[in-house]
Design a protein that fits this description.
Number of domains: 1
Order of helices and strands: HHHHHHHHHHHHHH
Radius of gyration: 21 Å
Distance between the termini: 29 Å
Structural class: mainly alpha
Mean pLDDT: 94
């Protein structure tokens, strides 16, 4: 256990905040993309489809690397039981708060005002339960995965802390990291294909898909962040510009877009998506860390405001986006105008709600998981 606090990594705070806030343009652009969602415009937009796919291709992989980095830092700072308590409170309390206050009302909104759950009365009891789980978890899935990975961290972080094998990380390059992470991605693909062959209904189960499959998919990124904390040469490699990784991000994104448009769910769409998304995550990890370290690695009150607001904004933006899509989108016939109008309205209302919640101590605690100072 270490009680000394290291120098604050401002650029990682900033990247994490911006990745969270990207959830707003991601979901607003989803209305206008070729992806089928609860609410869609009459005609999709090509550039907004590309924009939406690009955000989705890398955002959460980089986010979980940063989460693993800070989680391992806290694991070393506290006793393991204290670490688990602190992390589960920070993640679990906002998760449990958002279900009754955000996603449950959102479920009734979707059921009443969209066609997404139009056959609800004809669903079996299991189908109703499963659809309810999907909708209650909804855009909160990453918090569920963080709870799982944090709990697993009691084992994986202890193994990482106690391992005696000496590796010279000064000689570890992107090739080694890519091969190791891609090996795990290939294992994930084999596991998914076996489930698809023998128990395909499991993949339609919301709890299994999120708690098991998504947690396993993001586990190597989470541990990669922990490794970057333990071995500074690895973090230095992440923050050092690599032209191959930047060029790779472009090439891999083209493959991602092609897979999304031309593959089918009954074929190898999801396995290819896992392999491509893993590569895209690694390429954009270098891009985000490199440019973030150069441009965002300093204290800024405005950036810290966004860091503190980012989780709340992410939690409340989803129903606001759906309301915008239901009531405003049909009357705005230009997709580009509708997209930017949606950003203004959703961000504006979300920040207004954030300022209101700051003035209510109970809400501040529920949406942050932190005890509030008097």
């Amino acid at each position: 256990m270490s009680t000394a606090k290291p120098e604050r990594e401002y650029f990682l705070d900033s990247i994490r905040a911006y990745l969270m806030l990207l959830g707003v343009p991601f979901h607003v652009s989803l209305i206008y993309s070729m992806q089928k969602w609860a609410v869609n415009s009459q005609e999709p937009s090509l550039w907004l489809t590309l924009f939406n796919d690009f955000i989705h291709a890398f955002r959460m992989q980089v986010f979980f690397v940063i989460s693993g980095y800070f989680s391992y830092m806290l694991y070393l700072r506290y006793q393991p039981q204290r670490f688990l308590k602190v992390r589960l409170e920070r993640v679990g309390i906002p998760l449990l708060t958002a279900v009754p206050l955000i996603t449950l009302p959102q479920f009734f909104m979707l059921k009443a005002w969209t066609q997404k759950l139009s056959n609800w009365d004809n669903f079996s009891l299991y189908e109703k339960f499963n659809n309810l789980m999907w909708e209650l978890i909804s855009h909160l899935w990453f918090l569920v995965v963080l709870v799982v990975l944090t709990t697993l961290g009691m084992l994986t972080f202890r193994w990482l802390r106690d391992q005696q094998r000496h590796i010279d990380y000064q000689r570890v390059g992107w090739g080694t990291v890519t091969l190791a992470v891609m090996a795990w991605a290939l294992f994930w693909c084999v596991l998914r294909r076996l489930v698809f062959i023998f128990q395909p209904e499991w993949l339609m189960n919301g709890l299994f898909s999120i708690v098991i499959m998504l947690s396993l998919f993001y586990l190597p990124f989470f541990m990669l962040g922990a490794l970057a904390w333990k071995h500074p040469p690895l973090k230095e490699m992440f923050t050092r510009f690599n032209p191959v990784m930047s060029l790779g991000a472009i090439v891999v994104f083209i493959a991602y877009y092609a897979n999304q448009r031309f593959s089918s769910g009954e074929g190898w769409l999801y396995e290819l998506d896992a392999l491509i998304s893993t590569l895209m995550g690694l390429c954009m990890l270098n891009v985000c860390f490199c440019f973030g370290h150069k441009m965002l690695n300093s204290h800024s009150p405005r950036i810290m405001y966004l860091v503190n607001a980012s989780l709340f904004i992410y939690l409340v933006h989803h129903p606001l986006t759906l309301l915008y899509g239901i009531y405003i989108t049909p009357y705005v016939h230009n997709n580009t105008l509708g997209f930017f109008l949606g950003l203004i309205m959703v961000f504006g209302l979300a920040f207004l709600l954030y300022e209101i919640h700051l003035r209510i101590p109970l809400l501040r605690f529920l949406f942050s998981g932190k005890p509030q100072n008097k």
